[in-house]
């Protein structure tokens, strides 16, 4: 779990402040400074445990983000050289400066074709780092990218076609890349790449649609990572004896979270995709929405494979808990073959306190996602409002 020392909350405040500074700046110097402050605050979150895998992932993340920041600075300098202004409104006059700016933001997001770093980074960091990387760290680059594309797409149909193709291929790569993954972190990384494709498509459709989709993705992703964080799962093979004494309920929570993330109706994750499909039909982008749906269906396949490994795994698994050889069956009961009964009682008591907090948290999570079924009936009114 994350350290409760004061420096931990300090770093959280630093990277949150960096994103807010980037989103509230009117010129590229302030945007660049905010992104750098965000990076300096997030790197310690990645490496706070001092594990070799975390250090390696933190170095990869630092190099990629530094490269993206360099491309953003290059684009802003090219824009200043042409228009003698750092303002965002002057970018439409400079086509050549837009290319490094857009590529830098897409590199920071992990979008296709700059997606190669995201699975390897997420495979080596903690669940807290994964949760922040796939949610909050996408806020500033995604909305900055949307503000860049706003107005520029209307002037060039070629740019619109290129970004629609990037969105479609990002969804397909996110679906195909997760098929052969056995580690849950890498699987959710490819899932994040697929959702980035939907968000890029939302940038073309409209800023309001992006806000709705991103808000839903933000909430559902936090729910998924909180469940996995409290269960400390890393591989499919560990999912059959999660949460031991409350395994059935915990498995149900995780299954609903994953189906909601995949966009299965009537859960909350379906509302965002249904809204995007409805607007794409009105906007006339049939080919791109087909690519997005194909990638989403492939992603749903490996969500269901994880579901089957959770719900249909039977038999008995031998694991070591606190130095004692224990046998966990599918129902969550266990038999200890060595050690004293007092030690087992202490372990059971600690597990009860931990499971109480998990039960309260998970109940809130499942209610939030099941409420999505109600919002489906209001989606048409939401579209009319937007």
From TrEMBL:
It catalyses: a ubiquinone + NADH + 5 H(+)(in) = a ubiquinol + NAD(+) + 4 H(+)(out). The keyword Membrane applies. It is an enzyme of class 7 (translocase). It is found in: Mitochondrion inner membrane. One of its GO terms (molecular function) is NADH dehydrogenase (ubiquinone) activity. The chain crosses the membrane at residues 32-51, 63-84, 116-136, 156-180, 187-206, 212-231, 252-269, 275-294, 301-325, 356-383. Keywords: Electron transport, Membrane, Mitochondrion, Mitochondrion inner membrane, NAD, Respiratory chain, Translocase, Transmembrane, Transmembrane helix, Transport, Ubiquinone. Its main location: mitochondrion. It comes from the Eukaryota. Residues 25-299 form the NADH:quinone oxidoreductase/Mrp antiporter transmembrane domain. It is a multi-pass membrane protein. PANTHER family: NADH-UBIQUINONE OXIDOREDUCTASE CHAIN 2. This is NADH-ubiquinone oxidoreductase chain 2.
